[in-house]
Amino acid sequence: MGLVCDPKGKGGNEMIRKVMLAIMLCIVSALFMSGCGRDYGKVDQGRVIEFDRDRGTVTMIRDVKTDPGNPEYTYLPPLTYSLPKNVSDIGAEPKTGYRMKLDAANARIIIFDPVTKNFRTIEYKPVKQTENVEKNDPLVFDKSIGREKDFPVIDKISKTIMVYSRRQKIVTTFSVQEEFLSMPPKTWEAGDDIRVNYREDGKALKMTNLSRTESYKK
After folding, report:
1. b/e map of 18-33 (b: 16 or more CB within 10 Å)?
2. Which pTM was predicted?
3. Going by C-beta distance under 8 Å and a sequence separation of 6 or more, which residues neighbour residue 174?
4. Residue 5 pLDDT > 80, yes or no?
5. Most exposed among 107, 123, 161, 179, judged by the fewest C-beta atoms under 10 Å?
6. How far apart are CA 68 and CA 168, in angstroms?
7. Which is it for strands 79-82 and 57-62: parallel, antiparallel or unpaired?
């Protein structure tokens, strides 16, 4: 005597429930495999001053405000995180720099000094300043190669330095004392802003390069 399966009966309903459950489990499993729903713990944020892919570390100065329009990089000491083990959890490689603030109104730049491991304020003499400079302006963007021009521009003959702040939309050229001209170029450049997710201090679970998003511009 053969078995008869009645999809409208109790057996049919039970089978439908099992199939739906199996589908739900597959969806949840796929989400976790792709990183969705993963607990990334606590959040830290700041400006990158050092990045070592070989050693797998990134060092930043914490932004105590986390306001893209008005950041404040004043937290010391610098914070170093080991990079996530999962490559997909590492964002675009961040640019490094020691410039913490370009104070054009008061003709000064605040930098992080890697020797003293403290902040330093350097006053300068303005030579030329252009405001409202968009990221695609020929002054800062080279259409022939399709990317932003390299900054800073250091001219040791005229003893001037030209820097660009994407967030402030300012290109400024200034002169400084000769002793400052021998400093590394990254002294005058702003590093990228990153967000780090972590559960254990010093060990990043996820790193996001915020400077590559439209909301965060230096």
Report:
1. eeeeeeeeeeeeeeee
2. 0.79
3. 107, 124, 125, 126, 127, 160, 161, 162
4. no
5. 179
6. 11
7. antiparallel
